[in-house]
Write a structure and sequence with these properties.
It is a single chain. With about 425 residues, the chain is of the alpha+beta class. The protein has a six-stranded mixed β-sheet. A four-stranded antiparallel β-sheet has the order 12-21-14-19. Strands 1-2-3 form a three-stranded antiparallel β-sheet. The longest helix has 21 residues. The chain binds N-oxalylglycine and zinc ion (ZN) (2 copies).
């Protein structure tokens, strides 16, 4: 609903009765309690409800060239002298001249300034809880839907690599599925080593790590990384030892082993956390609170590294929403810098988390040309063991993207597609 409105605001929608000669009544506005302004759109087919705007917020968001720098779309208001007690002293409304004939609210302020606000601009920023929820879930970040392993076939979305590379609509659908479900598969990619870079650059740019920009997952002698063996790789998130953990994995299957094994395992750890929260609240609380030392020690291209980050297994924001899951048995440090009394209960809780996840894992084997993409701050992934011989190898090329970059691309695509609807 928020994006439909965005489409209309950008000038391609219907239903506002902006046409010449159409009967329209007036937008009205009044000052309430000396500080706020209530705006009442009266002739709209949509959004007829009154909206209340605190005066201080309106004054702070004045759109005039003195207060707002148009080409950088940035506030230039001087906050060193900004009066947070500023009050509206007069309001009026009109229908501005010009192509769009947008209805406007005009305000005179106690600091002698005057401001104007288009109605659609105000409506998009309404403080109404439902409208704010729609903006947050549709535009800020798509609302996530959590799934159990048994639901994987139902939630898994497949996209054609060529279409994603060529068509913005396919790119948008892929990124939207990745945001909502935490996983999406691309098919029929070419089998060259440049696919992950081209895909990452279609979105934005690769997030580099200790292991480089692109990395190759294959059984390697003298492996510097546990994944570079043909052993089973237990469920994990990659790179928990970084404060700024790369957040989207791209794994391009170039060659798949013909032996049994080499399958990927996936688990929605947000679903596992939901279950713990409901069924084992004491485990949930502990896994959210007790910081764990995650590490990675080694060298790559002759440069030594020693990465450590301390964070709980389940990280929450102030609203209790999941911000990040950390889990990796190989990359969990032997340093465990917590009070003695926390240790044994934490192990019990972690053991239950690991078993719940293992029992929920969905296994599937990618084929050459598949590109598996998933959310590294949400999903656990692993791999079953496989035989690696000269004639039977497995070759996966990987890279990371960051969510900041993915969400940004998604918003740009949504704005653009809303504008042409
Ligand atoms: C990894 C990893 C999965 C695979 O390298 O961290 O999870 O399919 N690899 O080999
Ligand atoms: Zn101004
Ligand atoms: Zn991994």
């Amino acid at each position: 609903m928020w994006l439909q409105r965005l489409g209309r605001v950008l000038g391609h929608g219907h239903g506002h009765g902006h046409g010449q000669g159409q009967c329209r009544r007036h937008l009205s506005a009044r000052i309430v309690q000396g500080t706020s302004i209530v705006v009442q759109p009266e002739s709209e087919s949509e959004g007829r409800e009154a909206m209340t705007f605190p005066g201080v917020w309106l004054r702070d968001n004045c759109r005039c060239t003195e207060c707002f720098h148009g080409s950088s779309r940035s506030r230039r208001l001087d906050w060193d002298s900004f009066d947070t007690r500023v009050r509206p002293v007069g309001v009026r409304t009109d229908q501005a001249a010009g192509q769009q004939q947008q209805q406007q609210l005009h305000v005179r302020w106690s600091d002698a300034h005057e401001s104007s606000y288009p109605l659609d601009w105000l409506r998009q920023r309404s403080f109404d809880g439902r409208r704010q929820r729609a903006y947050l879930d549709e535009f800020y970040r798509p609302a996530t839907r959590h799934w159990a392993g048994a639901e994987f076939q139902r939630i898994a979305r497949h996209f054609d690599y060529g279409q994603v590379m060529a068509e913005d609509a396919a790119l948008q659908q892929w990124l939207q599925a990745l945001a909502v479900y935490g996983v999406a598969l691309l098919r029929d990619a070419p089998l060259d080593g440049g696919v992950v870079r081209r895909l990452a650059e279609r979105v934005g740019f690769i997030r580099r790590t200790t292991y480089g920009e692109e990395f190759v997952v294959q059984a390697k002698p003298g492996a510097q990384n546990f994944a570079y063996l043909s052993l089973p790789l237990p469920l994990h998130t990659d790179l928990p030892y970084y404060e700024y953990k790369p957040s989207v994995n791209i794994l391009h299957c170039v060659t798949q082993t013909a032996s049994p094994g080499g399958s990927n395992l996936l688990v929605d750890a947000f679903h596992i956390a939901d279950r713990l929260r409901g069924e084992r609240p004491a485990d949930f609380e502990r896994l959210c609170r007790v910081p764990v030392d995650w590490n990675d020690i080694g060298s790559e291209d002759g440069r030594e590294f020693h990465n450590i980050w301390r964070a709980p297994v389940i990280c929450l924001d102030a609203e209790g929403k999941y911000t990040r899951i950390n889990h990796s048995v190989p990359q969990r440090d032997s340093h465990f810098s917590v009070p003695l009394a926390e240790v044994e209960p934490w192990y019990e809780s972690y053991g239950r988390f690991v078993r719940l996840a293992r029992d929920d894992a969905h296994a599937f084997k990618t084929r050459p040309g598949d590109v598996l993409t998933f959310n590294n701050i949400r999903l656990l992934h692993g791999r079953t063991g496989y035989d690696d011989t000269e004639h039977n190898s497995r070759y996966i090329v990987g890279a990371y993207l960051d969510w900041d970059i993915v969400y940004s691309r998604l918003r740009v695509l949504k704005k653009r597609s809303a504008a042409v609807q």
